[in-house]
Structures are given as C-alpha cells and as structure tokens.
Amino acid sequence: MSGMEVRIRNNVVVTGQPGAPIVMLAHGFGCDQSLWRLVAPALAEEFQVVLFDYVGSGRSDVSAWREERYASLDGYADDVLDICRELDLRDVVFVGHSVSSMVGVLAAAREPLRFGKLVLLVPSPCYIDEGDYRGGFSAADIDELLDSLESNYLGWSATMAPIIVNAPDRPELGQELTDSFCRTDPAVARVFARTTFLSDNREDLASVKMPTLILECRQDMIAPPEVGAYVHAAIPGSRIVTLDAVGHCPQLSAPEVTAAAIASFARD
Amino acid sequence: MKPRPAPEQPERPGQDGMADVSALLEDSAEELYENAPCGYLSTLMDGTVVKINRTLLNWVGYTRAEVIGRLRFPDLLTVGGKLYHETHVAPLLRMQGELNGIALEIRTVNGSRLPVLVTSVVKTAGDGRQLLVRTTVFDARDRRAYESELLRARHEAEEARRIAERDRERLKSVLGTLQRSLLPPSLPKVPGLEAVAAYHAASQDDLSGDFYDLFALGGERWCFFLGDVCGKGPEAAAVTSLTRATLRAAALHAPEPISMLGTLNTALQERYTGDSSRYCTVIVGILAAERDGFTVTLAGGGHPPALLLCADGRACYVPTTGGMPVGLLPSPSFVVAEARLERGDTLLLYTDGITEARTYSGDGRYGDEALLAFAGRLAPTSAAATIAAATRLIESFGAGVDDDTALLALGVPPT
Fold this sequence. Notes:
The complex is a heterodimer. Chain A is an alpha/beta fold. Chain A has one domain (3-126, 201-267): Alpha/Beta hydrolase fold, catalytic domain (Rossmann fold, 3-Layer(aba) Sandwich), CATH 3.40.50. Helix content of chain A is 43%, strand content 16%. Chain A has twelve helices and seven strands. In chain A, strand 2 (22-26), helix 2 and strand 3 form a beta-alpha-beta unit. The longest helix of chain A is centred in the N-terminal third of the chain and has 14 residues, at 73-86. In chain B, helix 7 packs across helix 8 (257-271). In chain B, strand 9 and strand 10 (293-301) form a beta hairpin. Chain B folds into three domains: 29-139, PAS domain (Beta-Lactamase); 150-181; 184-411, PPM-type phosphatase domain (Phosphatase 2c, domain 1, 4-Layer Sandwich), CATH 3.60.40. Chain B has a five-stranded antiparallel beta sheet, with helices on both faces. A five-stranded antiparallel beta sheet of chain B has the order 6-15-14-11-12, with helices on one face. The radius of gyration of chain B is 41 Å and the shape is rod-shaped. In chain B, 37% of the residues lie in helices and 27% in strands.
C-alpha cells in the first residue's frame, strides 16, 4: 500500500504547527474525527495535530474495510501504525478516545519508538463484568446495543444510499454527507461495536511503559470511576485526572478543560 | 377530492358549535403540553431532565419528583439504548444541534420496554451557546413491529444471497475441476520439440467444449489434436470427454489422422442420434521425428486451419480447410495436409475464440487474415513466445472475447 493510499484510506488530516510535538487524536466507536472539532483547533495552536478516521468510519475509504481485519482491535492498531509509518511519526502523543485508548495501548506495545506519551480519554480495558471486575455491562447488554444499532439500520439505509453510490455529478450529496456526522455502514458499525465492547485488554495495561495520562469524567456510564481507577492502578506510574464533565464525550461537552488537560500533559 | 381545512374558529357557530369552541378554548398550551399524544422532555446539555410531560411520565411510570433533576434522559432507556445514546445520540446532538427519528427503547419502572422514536433539538442562546435539549418521544410499537418484519426480511434476503454466493463458489470449483479433467495436466516431453499449450476461459461459470492433447505413439511418433465441441455446459463436457477418449484409443489402434477422425465420427453418431446430435471440429496430427525436425500429417474436420510460423519469417496456413465437422453426418469427408517442421519453425493450433473475437475494425471480428498477419509479424519465433503473444492478443480483446480459446504450439528450437 502506497503512502497516498493510507492518507486517503484513513482520511488523514494534519493541522497545527509544523515541527511542533505531534498530537494524534483517535476517535472511538460511534463517530469519526469530527468528534475532535472542538479541541483540535486549541491543540493546533501549539502542536502538530494528526486526525484520521478508522477504515469504515467517517470519510475513510469504506471499500478498504475487511471484517477479518477490523474484528479485532489489532486491526485498528494497524491503521494507527500504518499512518505513523506513512507520515514517519515518532514520539507521538497519542490521544485515544474510549475504545481507541486501548488501540493506542496495543499500537504502542508493538512500535514503542513511535509513541512518546499516551492519553487515555475515558478508557475501559473491558466493558463486561467478569468475576470481581466491574466493567459495567453484561454480554446481554451488548446484544441490546447491537439491536439498537440494527433498529436505526433502516433509517440509515434510506439516507445514506445516495452517498454510497458516490455520484460525482451530484455535488449536493457532498453537502448531505458533511451534514450527517458519524454515519457508519451498519455492517461496519456492528463489527466495531462487537470489537469495542467484547474486547478484554486488561492484560495489556501492564505493558505500558511510557508516560500515561488517564482522563475520566465525573459521571460516565460507559467508563465509570471504578474503571478509571482500575486502569490507573494497572498502568505503572500513570496519572489520572477527573474532568468536570458528564457523559462519555468530554471533548464535546467540556472541550476547554479536555484540551487544556491534553496540552498540559503533552507539554511536560 | 381534497379535504377542506377545518376553520380554526367557526365564523357563525350554532349551538353545538359553541360547545366545540369552549372545549377548544379550555385546551391551553399547558394542557396540550402535559397530555399531548407524544412525550415531551427537556434536559440540560448533560442529559439531566428538567421538564417532562405527563404523557411520558405515564409511559415510564415515574412520578415527576423522581425524575426532575434526578435522572438523565439515558436513565430512562434500556442498557442498549443508553450505550447507543452515549456513543451516538449525545455526540451528534452536540455537533449538529438536532437529531431526527432515532429508534430507542424506554425501560419503564416495572421493567417493560417501550419502543420509541426520538427527535431532539438543541436550544441555543443568542451567542450560540447550547442551553438545553428539547425532545419529543413517540410511541413506536406498531412501527417497530413493522420494521422488525422488514429487518427480518432483509436478513433473510442477505442470508439467501450468502447461500447463493457460496453455492456459486462451490459450482465454480466443481466446474474448474471438471474443466481441468478435460485437458491434460501437462504436456509430455518430446525430444527436439517444444510444446506449449494455453487455455483461456471466457467465463468462469460454464464448461467449455475446447480440448487438446499430445501423447506418444511409440517409435519416435507422437499424436496431437485440438478441437472444439459445439455448445457449452455439461453436455458439451460429456462430448469432449468422449471425443478425447475416442481419439486417444483410435490413435493407438490406427495412428493415421483420417481414420482417427472416421472413428470419432462413428462414435459420436452412435452415441448422439436424432435431435440430440452432437459434433465437434478438430484437427488431428501425427508427428514423426525425421532428420532435424518433424514431418507433420494433419487432418481437419471443419476446424480452422493450423498456422505455420517459419524460421525464415514467413507465416502461412496449413490447408486443411474444407473438411466437415465430426459427428454431424454419417459419411463425412476430411482434408489431409502435410507439413515439415524444421529448426526454428512453429506450428500453432487454436480454436475460433481468437478469430471470432469482436473488434472495432473490418467486419467486426478479428478474422483469419488478421491472425495470419499477426503470425507473420511474430515469425520467426518459438512455441513459448507464440503462446505468450497469442495470450496478450486475446487479453487485448477484453470483453470482445465471447468464447473460450485453446492454443497449442509445437516448435522446433533453432539449435
């Protein structure tokens, strides 16, 4: 795969200060890089910011999506490493939202020299309860989520069908696409959802050797405080900061404090 | 006929009309909000419920005091709904300020589920700051049942397609195996001769009737043939199989091209009678090693003539034209020709997939003359180079190739 293909495949966007330390913002399940739109401009004033969409999400090249590859978090880590190789990135401050925090852990374990620091934004190494571990969900809950995805399948098909055919002679469709964030092919979303919520990366946390910041929210049903504390205890020397934010997307609900926390850690 | 819009206030109400009007007047905005046929809900940006109407309270089974300021909207949803809300609904509302017709399920206080359709709009301040979310919630039980039917039908259709694709793959693999069984897996080594064959399938989905073979007869003599059974598919494959076996047996019994074709004609006539008549076109040849080359005796049964690409750069057809297809008539006539293969000469046999390929020049088909010119440009050459060049030629036709093509080249290396 040539470099240009990786940039197009993953809709890679580089902004900010050339030559400045690199902050890579990785979106989680459910959306795409547009989720960073309230924090990226602030970070771009000081850093070189790399944004991208995982294959299958956002405006990536969906034709490059393969179920085998993206049915495990290693496939998403491959996307991250492909981009790092293509842009020849080193000492990256990798900011992974939600499931992407674990993608960052996996990618950093495989090519440690490419990463300088990890920011795990509302991470959870395992969403399903097991023994004494409280991830917050049961396998049946995850099936329910898959049903919810499925229920919104019909609406998706109707609105997305014209975009999928990708008619260049109908520019109004491009407008429609920019107006509809985070639309994902249901088949892709289903695999991403399963991979996200059924992965167990608790064993991988101990392998993290680089400076790591855990950012959690005051109240977050997907990554509750107990899970944040678990990650903090499992990664030697990690720091944890609780943001004054509610929900699972602090980069949208509290962009200033989120950006400030990332910047201050990246700067140190 | 279009329904006439009802006037909001009747101009001259009768006595019954007066009663209607007073009922209308009593229906205050507040009354409409509380008892509207849909749920109303206002939340802060973090999801905390600050206002909710009676309809929705009745659906979820909570009192107002239990909800206001205490629960977030996702708290009213099933766990799957909560996850969907946090990963999709909340971020999208932040980004685009509104969301339409999201399918979710409410979990009522007694544990039952209510499928709903949710539409939300963010109210913003003058400076664009997002203040709160206004949400309408519609009972979607009937609609969801209908959609479940659609989803089920869709899953069935997808499953049927998967099965069809799998069956098609399986069929393709069976066809491939069968097709390969109709051709020799490799050609035998003939001292002093380079023999190369190729087969180009126009379609992966059907069996072709093209065939070829090369085998030793003993005593410095070899037999080869190349032909084309009329038709395609399993029937043609059966004829191909019979044809190959018959020609091989005939060659070992009486290694003489004309009598081989006669034996094949008899076999096809016996096996396929009346309406089920089956025939093929074929060239049969015997190679006899003599001096530094080979003498070739060819017999043609309705097949396009072989091409001779000579060491001196010329190319010509070996005239076997005029022979009749084999199996068509009780007593056909076949045409014999003899040729010498000296050092540097190459003999090319082919089926009409190449000459019948559609092009944009001449009469729309590639044709014999173009093929002869092609051979002329190629000579002198080798068997391998001939097959390689012919393969490129066939590929250059692209979608213009309707039929399969078998190629067999026999060349005597220059030294």
